[in-house]
Amino acid sequence: MAEMSMNKAIHAAVRRDLDRFLDALQRFPDGDRARAAQLAAAWQNFDGQLTHHHEGEHEIAWPALQKLGVSQELLAQLDSEHDTMAAALAASRTAMGALQRTAGAEDAATARTAIHELRRVTVEHLEHEEAEIEPVYLANEGSPELKAMGREFAKVGPAQGGAFFAWALDGATPAESAAITGTIPKPVLAVIAGVFGRSYRKSIAPTWRS
User: Fold this and answer.
1) Could you tell me the domains of the chain?
2) Range 99-104, long-range pairs (CB < 8 A, 24+ positions)
């Protein structure tokens, strides 16, 4: 049995980025427009990744999990948490947009407050989901239902797939990396993450090295 599902490894990437934003905004230099633009690009990627993940869970993962015996009541609870998270994500999106426009310390502080709340509700949801759903993923690894779910999630263009793998692997532990790449043939991963993940590594990954 795998140490963790890809789902849990993706959650780890979400947590990493939220912590990175909080740290970067704490240290934001007032008036630094280049840094504001850098953070805006990283935010756009994160916003897209988190939105795609929670919307994909509702549309793709939940039907597969129902087939594996997960109750509709639990999935409805998780969807309600998604709604709370989406509202906090929208508030953070607005705050990060203001920071991009002004590069001001006050807007950086406002954005940090918004992302702190986003982190709170997101981590609360992730912990709940992992406690309830991670055992189901691990117990049913390789099942027809999860294989079909994986094929549906994989129906993205190479640029989107490359950005996802580059983002999810950026700072991942060995166990998280194995969960993310374990089912992908190495030559395929080399092309997707290597060639199509180049934009992430060039424009976004350096944000967290600054």
Assistant:
1) 6-153 (1.20.120)
2) 99/25, 99/28, 99/36, 99/39, 99/40, 100/36, 100/37, 100/39, 100/40, 102/36, 103/30, 103/31, 103/32, 103/33, 103/35, 103/36, 104/30, 104/31
